[in-house]
Structure formats: structure tokens, C-alpha cells
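Hey,

The postdoc asked me to send both predictions to you directly instead of through the lab channel. I've kept everything plain text so nothing gets mangled by the mail client. Protein one:
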Amino acid sequence: MKEIFKAGFYRLMFQAFNFLVGLFIAALAGAEMFGTISLMVVNAALLLLLTGLGTDQAIVWHGAGKKLDANKLFTFSFVTALFQILIFLSVALFFLNITGKTVLTKSISFPDFFPELIYFSGIVLLDKYVSLLYAQHKARICNLLLAAVTGIALLILVAARFNFTSIEINPFLFFCLLPIAQALVIVFFFHIKTPAWFSGLNKPEIKSFFNFSLLVFVSNIIQFLAYRIDYWFIEYFSNTTVQVGIYAQANRFAALLWIVPNIIAALIIPVLSSPQNKFDINEVAGITRVLNYLNLAITGFIIFSSYIVYIYFLQSSYAGGFLPLIFMLPGFYFFSITLLLAAYFSAKNILWINFTASLICLSIIVVLDYFLIPIMGIKGAAIANSIAYTASSLFTIILFLKISKLRLADIFAFKKSDWKLMAKLRS
């Protein structure tokens, strides 16, 4: 448990540095360029999911459960990574040839093709090697390395933002290069510590990978669309990336509520999947209770700190994002519960619940976005977000309570025993 706690701390550090890097990128780029960067992230993430076929979670599940050795996990990871990059290259060249624009940012500048290729390759390698290290229960050192690289990147951006250096930084190019820099560090570490090499996979092993990943793949696509389809709606109805940039920054503030649940979810899946699992369902509920109260405090911190940042740090063009942020927060708060419970369902291979919850979320968002964004702009997108996330969360909570035989109070009412649970996590 102590290893999980340490890994969570380093992951939190990495996510905090990542958020600050994004904040400085937004400040240096301005709303329009940041909108372009945000759309690139969304488009790349969709292609990553479509080409990945849910294999990253399958790698963690098979590795943590000792179902395959390191050589076979590495082989599967390498082949799927190569497949993803080649597919992206084919799609990007085809799109460029047909439209004269790059596939991720829709830029008419051919030189932008190469940063986009580097960015996509970086996130593919990053996902694969993070999965490999998590499968080996090396989350702590993985997150420490990622935090170190991202911290260095943050220092460079701070120097540029406050004119401590005469070197001018291109925010778009800097952002595209960061994932490959992060990936190369953990690639080097993995191969130094793990003498993994190519190994053949038989049909049952391949079938096992894809049987697990298929439903994960479909769920991830639906979940991703539920998270990010509003970006495309905003771009379509506003016909500009400025509003996307304003909304994306507000969304990043709200998503701070998801950092801790996401960290715990990512760390707890290998533990729950392991044959030596020492976690029971009551402890999952206990962690959820603790997170609920922690996130109430984080919500207050987000409102206060974001208000200060909007006034004193970001360009005035971002000011219209504060009210949409307030509208988003209730949905993000309730959905933070879903993130942890979904990790439990994933580890126990009860994937249909996550799939259905994602489908509910997406359906509500599409309908509400279509009607609210033309009338209310990004405020409408924020309201749609909040309603959909809350509805999805209620569905997940009800199913968790039904399966676990627990009561609603077991998720929301803090207990004295939760202090002992936190002590257990640190021990």
C-alpha cells in the first residue's frame, strides 16, 4: 500500500506540472492559438483511441495479473504502437493530399505536418510504456520520471513568460515536442531495467488481449466523445478557435477535480487485478468517501485560484471562461466519483456498466449541446456538460450500490474508520 501512496504522490506532482505547463502555454499562445492546440489534442486523442483498440488497458490487466511475461507484453506493445503510428501517417498524408490541410489542426502550412506527426508518435509511445511500467507495478518510478521531465519543461516556460531568457518559444512547437521528450525518458528506463525482447504470441494470447480490449475500446470511444464532443460543437457553431480556447482553459480548471480520482483509479486497477489483491469493496467505498470531501475543498480552491489567474495572469481574451467554469463544476464533482467506481468495474471485468454510463453521458451531451450552444455559446456547453456528467454518475453509483450491497451513506458519509484506511494506504 505504501508503494501505491508514493506512486500517487508522484503522479499528482506530474499532473500538477502538466496543468501548469498547459496554463503557461495558454498564456503565451493566446486564446486563438490555444484553441488550435486544444483541437489538436482532441483530434489526436480520438485517433489514438481509434487506432489503439483499447490495448493499453489490456496491457496493464494482463501484466498486473501475471497472465503474460514481459517479452510478450513488450512485443504486443511494440506491434500495436507501430500500427498506430503507421495508420496515423497514412491518414495524415491522405487528408493533406485531399484537402491541403493537416489532419490534427487543419493548418494549410505543410511544415505543421511534422510537429503533428511528432506529437502523435510521442503520445503513442507514452501510453504504451506507461502501461508497460504500470503492468510491472513500477508506477512510482514511472511518475517520478514523468514529473521530472515535465518540471524541466515548466521551468523553461516560466523563464520565457517572465522574460528571464532572450530565447523565444513557439508555444505550438513546444507543446508538440513535450510528449516525445517524456516518452523517451521512460522508454530508456524500461529497457535498462527490463531485458525484454520480441517473443511470439499464440492465438489464445492474442484472443485474450482483444477480448478484453474490444469492450474497453468501444467504451473509451463513447466516453471520449462525451468528454470532448463539445469542442467540435463550439468550433462548428462559432466558426473560430477563439471560443474553443476560452472553453478549453475553463475545462482544464474544472478537470483539476479529476486529477486525484484518476491517479487512484490508474493505480488501483493493477492492485485489484492482481492475484494477491488485498483490497475489498468496502475499502473502495472508503476511498470514495474520502475523495468526496477532498474534492469539496478542491472545488473551493479552483473557484478562488482560477478567478485570480483570470484577472492577473491570462490574457483578457480568456475572461469569458470564468462563468462557464462555475457551470461545469457540479458535474465534474459528481463525475469524480464515477472515475473511481469505473476503475473497480474495469478491474473486475464488469465493463458493461462503464459502457452504459458513457453512452448515457454522450447521449445527453449531444442533445443538449445541439440546442444550447447556438443560443448560449460556451455557457450552454458548460451546462450540458454538468447535467450529463451528473446523470452518468448517478447511474454508476446506483449500480455500484446494487452489486456491493452497500448504502448511499457508505459512499458519501465520512466515517471514523476512514482515517485508519488512509493510514493503511500510507503503510
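Protein two:
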Amino acid sequence: FRKFVALTIVALTSLTSEGLTQDKVFQMRSKYNSLGSFFVFTAEGGGTLALSDFQTPGISYIGRGGVEYFFPSTGIAVFGLRVLGGYGVLTGRHEDGRSVGSGTTRIINKFKTTFSYVEGGIVVAFGMNNIIPYLASGGNYIIAYSPKDQDFVGIYSPVNRGGFLSVFGEFGLRFFFTNTISFNISGKYTLGIVDDIDGFESNKKDSFITAAAGFSLHLFHGLRIK
């Protein structure tokens, strides 16, 4: 009888340990960790902060949307590719004014530049349960940008400047309401290769910071674990 009790205790302990281990493994698998690939469609809006040659950076707005594709993974991290596009505005002020334009220049105290862009890059998502942090990096192509003064008069002629490449780094969090819908927040730094986003040319490349929030749909993930 004692041997039977001892064997029973050992068996129950083994089953319990195995159950706990399986449960732990299950909990460690995030909303992003998957047996199969899946797509994410995103729409977001937020603010911009221009880091230019103007003394006081202004806060303006930006909107973006696009798609991401994530590869199969059952580990703690999952890798994906992204293609996004957007439209935004950059502003700044300088109390003493800046000499802007080319050829016939003029002094302005405030600039407002509209721009549109597309971007491509890689995404690495981490985490567990319903909150997923991620990192993204890649390249932006500014399709066109239009620097204007405080009276919304174009600094250059023609008003629209040609496109240029830039690079970005982004950190964000996704909060899942369901296995398909998430609310996102992110911060992003973009460094350009031009110096006249604000209409003033110096030895400093213009850059900007964006903060965005919005929603994503996570689709075509029938083989996902959770």
C-alpha cells in the first residue's frame, strides 16, 4: 500500500509539473508568436516635432497607414516587413528670423512644410499575452515637400521640392483588445539627407520626431497558437 501511495504521489507530481510547464509555455507565446504567417493592416495619426535650423520646434500633425507581413515563429521574437505611407506637416519658429530660399532670399520667422512619404523596413516584435512591444527600422522616401512661410507662401519656386531618402528608427507598443484588433502607440525618429526642409540651408541635416496612435487589424492567422 505504501508503495502504491508513493507511486501515486510521484505520478501526480509529474503530471502537475508537466501541466505547469505546458501552461507556462503557452503563456509565454504572445499574440504575435505564430505557427503561420499573418498580415497586419494599420491606420494611425499623431504629432510631429521638427528638429531644424529654426530655434523653436513646432508641433504639428501626421497620418499614416499601411501593411506589415510577419513570418512564422514560435519563439519570443517574430520578424516582419512593413510598407507604410503618410502625409504630415512640420513647423518651427525663429525669433530673429532666418534667410530662406535660393536666389532671391527673404527673412521669415516661421516655416510650415507639408510632406508626403512612403517607407519600408523590418519589424521585430516581442512580448507575451496582450501587450506586444516592437522595434522597426528602415528607409523613408519623402515623395515631395513644400516649405512655406508664416503666411503660407511658398519659399521656393516651384513650391514642391523633389524627393529624397531618409532613415528611421521606431519603438512602439500594441495593446490587443481581441486576437485581431490592437490599439497602438509609437515614437519614431527620422533623419533626412537634405538641409532645406525648413527652407534654410546650413551644415545641419534636418530631422523630425513623430508620435502616433491608432488601430491595427491582424488577419489571416488561422494557424496562430493564441
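Summary for protein two, as requested: The longest strand covers residues 78-100.

Thanks,
C.
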